[in-house]
């Protein structure tokens, strides 16, 4: 074929950090603190729920309602009505998607026109950028910045109210926020969300709030839903993930909760692409939420148990990084930790990466030479700002103790080797 095959929207979005670094980790059989997935099983109750669903008769293997399996939209509506204090209509206000990824995709497709501006807070989960580009939107970036030099906690990273306000223009259609944040672990405080909400209301802008790590907060930090602030329900698109909620990232069940007048446009996109998310996986997530509704706030709740377990692993990873001279930024939430690598000088000795940023080179070197996979933090920034943050790499701690021990051994061996040189 001599004519151009590809559509223009595929240009400039062909690189993907997960595709590249997950393959690299596999090629080098590295201890994997890179991609964010638990290397342990989901809790028994959801595994059993999935098995029961699969054995539950013919209808569990057939199409279900397009916009969400009835039992799941009902359990999501019941659960989140309790959490938000807002009466959520299961049929109007909920859309079940193929992971949070597809929820984001449908949001951009349904709500952003060519030329619309979308404000993205950096660091951001990488897919926001290509998704905005693919609809012809214009990304406008605003970074969270550490208030203090040598910051030790994600709480030190804040948005400048003036800088954020300066990004709103008559073309701004939406802002995307992510709390708890991937990769930083920042959990936005009510005052910070209120500042964003005030700007959204003032400029009549939508807020896409990615809350896939909503149950994972530490040290008394509380996740606050921006949709629950006055005037925000009718303009907020809240996105969640069954994969993150129940440690089952491969199930790819996600959802959007929003006002019916917004959801209806997302349904239009959704019904014309995948039509629905696999039935049995939806049934299992529904049963998971029903159980969590019963146990809400009790020590048996998985939404209490998972953060308690991860709190310990977060501490373990932080001490390990500190002991080898890598300064971690303690996350208030989520399951990632970023660390400053600028104190370690490495001779990469790898011409194949010489044009890449420092963090990309470091991560490739660490994976290939030392067998430990991580993720470069500049992947979560726009090209304009990535350079300022390429002294950080991201470590994932939703891993077995044994995996964290193996990572620790690698780092210790390396740091002892450096001392002996
Ligand atoms: N948003 C954020 C912030 C994420 O880290 C991820 C990755 N899990 C997603 C969305 C996509 O979630 P899912 O796996 O449910 O598609
Ligand atoms: N959300 C996961 C992370 O941040 C991975 C997403 C993916 O692999 N595409 O690690």
TrEMBL record:
GO terms for biological process: kynurenine metabolic process. Residues 30-407 form the Aminotransferase class I/classII large domain. The keyword Magnesium does not apply. One of its GO terms (molecular function) is cysteine-S-conjugate beta-lyase activity. It holds the Pfam family Aminotran_1_2. GO terms for cellular component: mitochondrion. It catalyses: L-kynurenine + 2-oxoglutarate = kynurenate + L-glutamate + H2O; an S-substituted L-cysteine + H2O = a thiol + pyruvate + NH4(+). Its cofactor is pyridoxal 5'-phosphate. It comes from the Eukaryota. Pathway: Amino-acid degradation; L-kynurenine degradation; kynurenate from L-kynurenine: step 1/2. Keywords: Aminotransferase, Lyase, Pyridoxal phosphate, Transferase. The keyword Lyase applies. Belongs to the class-I pyridoxal-phosphate-dependent aminotransferase family. PANTHER family: FI04487P (PTHR43807), KYNURENINE--OXOGLUTARATE TRANSAMINASE 1 (PTHR43807:SF14). Homodimer. This is Kynurenine--oxoglutarate transaminase 1. It comes from Gymnodraco acuticeps (Antarctic dragonfish).
């Amino acid at each position: 074929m001599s004519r151009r095959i590809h559509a223009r929207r595929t240009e400039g979005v062909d690189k993907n950090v997960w595709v590249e670094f997950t393959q690299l980790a596999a090629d080098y059989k590295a201890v994997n603190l890179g991609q964010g997935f638990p290397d342990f099983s989901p809790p028994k109750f959801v595994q059993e729920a999935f098995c029961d669903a699969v054995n539950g008769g013919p209808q569990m293997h057939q199409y279900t309602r397009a916009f969400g399996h009835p039992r799941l939209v009902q359990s999501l509506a019941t659960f989140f009505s309790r959490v938000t204090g807002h009466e959520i209509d299961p049929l109007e206000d909920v859309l079940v998607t193929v992971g949070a990824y597809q929820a984001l995709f449908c949001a951009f497709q349904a709500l952003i026109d060519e030329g619309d501006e979308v404000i993205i807070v950096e660091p951001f989960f990488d897919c926001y950028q290509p998704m905005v580009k693919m609809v012809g939107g214009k990304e406008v970036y605003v970074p969270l910045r550490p208030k203090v030099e040598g910051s030790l906690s994600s709480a030190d990273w804040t948005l400048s109210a003036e800088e954020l306000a300066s990004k709103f223009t008559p073309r701004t259609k939406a802002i995307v926020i992510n709390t708890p944040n991937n990769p930083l672990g920042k959990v936005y405080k009510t005052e910070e969300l209120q500042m964003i909400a005030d700007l959204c209301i003032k400029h009549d802008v939508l807020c896409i709030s990615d809350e896939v790590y909503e149950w994972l907060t530490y040290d008394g930090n509380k996740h606050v839903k921006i949709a629950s602030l006055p005037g925000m329900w009718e303009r907020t698109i809240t996105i969640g993930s069954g994969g993150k909620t129940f440690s089952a990232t491969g199930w790819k069940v996600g959802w959007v909760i929003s006002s019916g007048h917004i959801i209806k446009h997302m349904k239009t996109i959704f019904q014309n692409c995948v039509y629905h998310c696999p039935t049995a996986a939806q049934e299992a997530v529904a049963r998971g939420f029903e159980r969590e509704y019963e146990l809400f706030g009790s020590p048996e709740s998985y939404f209490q148990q998972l953060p308690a377990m991860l709190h310990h692993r977060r501490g373990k990873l932080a001490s390990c990084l500190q002991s080898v001279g890598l300064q971690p930024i303690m996350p208030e939430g989520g399951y990632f930790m970023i660390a400053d690598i600028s104190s370690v000088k490495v001779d990469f000795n790898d011409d194949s990466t010489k044009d890449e940023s420092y963090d990309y080179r470091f991560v490739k070197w660490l994976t290939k030479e030392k067998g430990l996979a991580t993720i470069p933090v500049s992947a979560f920034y726009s090209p304009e700002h990535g350079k300022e943050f390429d002294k950080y790499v991201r470590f994932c701690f939703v891993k077995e103790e044994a995996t964290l021990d193996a990572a620790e051994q690698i780092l210790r061996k390396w740091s002892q080797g450096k001392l002996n040189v």
